[in-house]
Write a structure and sequence with these properties.
The complex is a heterodimer of chains A (about 280) and B (about 210). Chain A is mainly α. Chain A is built from ten helices and no strands. Chain A has one domain: Formate dehydrogenase/DMSO reductase fold, CATH 1.20.1630. In chain A, about 75% of the residues lie in helices and about 0% in strands. Chain B has a domain of about 140 residues: Alpha-Beta Plaits, CATH 3.30.70.20. Chain B has seven helices and 13 strands. The chains are: A mainly alpha (about 280), B alpha+beta (about 210).
Chain lengths: ~280, ~210
């Protein structure tokens, strides 16, 4: 095992935090009534992405034992990890400035929100591409995993945004596309999961045996409970059902439907990354 | 393009799996306990005529021409030296393990005491002084050959030219262009395993299959 659950936490927090900001920027109103809820969501984004980066740094033992080595962190711009560091750093700067302005009871400039959201998109893409550029693990397919992680990050961002704004008191009503996202994202993630399993199962050549063993680990082996229970049942089926119920019942829907939906999405999002990291079998013995 | 391109050729038909290379490397480079810069994977194999023989496959860093470990390293700690070998600048290594996840040969390891990643250097400290890598100089059957692949007059280049298509690198389909070549690799990998795969006396792949 090269990477383990620690990296799964980092990947989850980075993707979730980045998309929490994106939802805050585009789903929260820009009026004063929405500021508190929006600030709560942006704060969640900052803490999640910052904590993820901190965990990544702590896991890099050489750097922790010799901190000056971190000055080389973007020494190779051909490395996806170097680009991840750049995206995360700039995203955090943008998000913190936005949060600071809202704390000062000002609306952040729209351009800053958009630029920070684009950086957030880069952060969430980076998490999948990071694994996808490690050819020793065929499960981490560069073709399919970044898409799956991107969609999952968007779904967990939607959930964290929903929870944060609910806890902060709600604010103005969410736009209609948010309701559609609650239905589209789990379906898209399921499709991305199927694509991932199909692409990896079709691996040929030197990676074929490790690819087959990894897929077996996911669907019927060591990570099957996490995959079917955590990712599929808790992370996709349950929140989709709750979203359908919530939208059908409208104002009559109990408040806990939304809370349960969001918590399930977050559990499923972490389970997805954990299962993908832990089920991966290397090509080498 | 570097003028020198160091590489290794291992004749599997001659390797007897004695692990003298493993021990010599341990003494020369002192990798941590349970870690190896080179090792021999051994298993019992059934040949086409029904006999059971011993298959031995020495492994080490392949010092690839197109190394994934170098391209993913964020700090530039992993780099290609002028002689074409893949080296690690320990003063830049943050121990993120990205290179370990990228290397399909599993030749890199974490040094717990320092937090750095390490691996075979082709005995860089010896070869720069005109010596052979420890594993090559100690090989009792001269299974291992080392030299400049860009020098047509070097022993290794002559042997590779003589071997032709019979000399192959591990997992060449991955595109890393390994610079450790094997003679007899196809025959060794094609022989049906009838035992677990061992590395230094320990099972690294059970006969029942991997999990």
């Amino acid at each position: 095992m090269v990477w383990d659950g620690i990296v799964a936490i980092d990947l989850f927090l980075a993707g979730m935090g980045a998309w929490t900001f994106i939802f805050a920027a585009f789903a929260c109103g820009r009026d004063d009534a929405a500021r508190k809820a929006k600030l709560a969501a942006v704060a969640v984004a900052v803490v999640a992405v910052g904590l993820g980066a901190l965990i990544l740094a702590v896991d890099a033992r050489g750097g922790m034992m010799h901190p000056l080595r971190f000055v080389h962190l973007i020494g190779n711009l051909g490395s996806v990890m170097a680009w991840g560091v750049i995206f995360i750093s700039l995203f955090l700067v943008g998000a913190i400035v936005c949060a600071g302005m809202m704390l000062a009871k000002k609306q952040p400039p729209r351009a800053l929100e958009i630029v920070t959201a684009v950086l957030g998109l880069g952060v969430s893409l980076y998490t999948g591409v990071l694994l996808g550029t490690a050819p020793a693990f065929p499960l981490w397919s560069l073709t399919a995993l970044p898409i799956a992680f991107l969609v999952s990050a968007a779904y967990t961002g939607y959930a964290a945004w929903g929870l944060a704004t609910r806890v902060a008191g709600g604010g103005s009503a969410a736009p209609s596309w948010v309701s559609r996202a609650a239905l589209v994202l789990p379906v898209a993630e399921a499709a991305a999961l199927i694509l991932l399993l199909a692409v990896v199962s079709g691996t040929s050549g030197s990676g074929a045996a490790a690819a087959a063993a990894s897929v077996a680990n996911l669907v019927s082996g060591s990570q099957a409970v996490v995959f079917w229970g955590g990712v599929v049942a808790v992370g996709l089926v349950a929140p989709l059902a709750l979203a359908v119920l919530r939208q059908r019942q409208g104002d009559k829907a109990p408040a806990w439907y939304g809370l349960a939906e969001w918590v399930c999405i977050l559990v499923g999002g972490f389970a997805f990354r954990y299962a993908v990291v832990m089920a991966a079998v290397p090509i080498f013995l | 393009m570097s003028e020198k391109r160091l590489g290794m050729l291992i004749d599997l038909g001659v390797c007897i799996g004695c692990n003298a290379c493993t021990v010599a490397c341990k003494q020369e480079n002192e990798p941590p306990l349970t870690k190896f810069n080179t090792w021999v994977e051994s298993w019992d194999a059934e040949t086409e005529d029904g006999r059971v023989t011993r298959a031995n496959l020495p492994k080490l860093c392949n010092h690839c021409e197109n190394p994934a470990c170098v391209s993913v390293c964020p700090t530039g700690a992993s780099y290609q030296a002028e002689d074409g070998t893949v080296q690690i600048d320990q003063d830049k290594c943050i121990g993120c393990k990205y290179c370990m996840a990228a290397c399909p040969y599993g030749v890199r390891y974490m040094v717990e005491e320092s937090g750095d990643v390490s691996k075979c250097t082709f005995c860089h400290h010896r070869t720069t002084e005109g010596l052979l890598p420890a594993c090559v100089s100690t090989c009792v059957t001269t299974s291992r050959m080392f030299g400049d692949l860009n020098d047509p007059d070097s022993d290794i280049s002559k042997k590779l030219a003589e071997a032709g298509d019979k000399a192959k690198g591990l997992m060449e389909d991955l595109g890393m262009e390994p610079r450790v070549y094997y003679i007899g690799l196809d025959e060794t990998l094609a022989a049906k395993p009838v035992s677990a795969v061992h590395k230094g006396g320990n099972v690294i792949a059970p006969y029942e299959g991997r999990q």
